[in-house]
Specification:
Elements lengths: L1 E6 L3 H11 L4 E6 L2 H10 L5 E4 L8 H10 L8 E5 L4 H9 L4 E4 L4 H16 L9
Parallel strand pairs: 1-2, 1-3, 3-4, 4-5
Helix pairs in contact: 2-3
Length: 133
């Protein structure tokens, strides 16, 4: 079972995101702040994916990604940014600095589900290992 962490300071948005991605193969954990998310991730390394807003108190989405990508234990966790208040330049910056996908608000649930499925499927791919002959 995949565990998806949803981080957004708006409870309605968190609920919409959770309902969009929860299934028999995915369970969602919802948190309201980036700082709480970071602490949770450090205590729960089995998270398969993070979906986070950009604008949050204490630790915003950009800072959360930066910390995740610098942490050897967390840097492989894929991240989807969901936000309504960023420019095209900021989107490119986010994608260039560690976000896997960007989804604008209001969220197109089909697009979000497609991105989630791609990232979870990618994490399930077995790694190639050399075999001695």
């Amino acid at each position: 079972m995949h565990k998806i962490l949803i981080v957004d300071d708006d409870p309605v948005t968190r609920t919409i995101l959770a309902r969009t991605v929860e299934s028999e193969k995915c369970v969602c954990v919802q948190l309201s702040q980036g700082k709480l998310a970071l602490d949770f991730l450090r205590d729960n390394p089995d998270i398969s994916l993070v979906i986070t807003d950009m604008s949050m108190p204490e630790l915003d989405g950009r800072a959360l990604i930066k910390v995740l990508r610098q942490d050897n234990d967390l840097k492989a966790i894929p991240v989807i940014i969901v936000s309504g208040v960023v420019s095209l330049h900021e989107i490119y910056d986010l994608l260039g600095n560690g976000a896997d996908y960007f989804v604008p608000k209001p969220v197109d649930t089909e697009v979000l589900q497609t991105y989630v499925n791609r990232l979870l499927h990618k994490r399930q791919q077995p790694t190639c290992q050399a075999q001695s002959l």
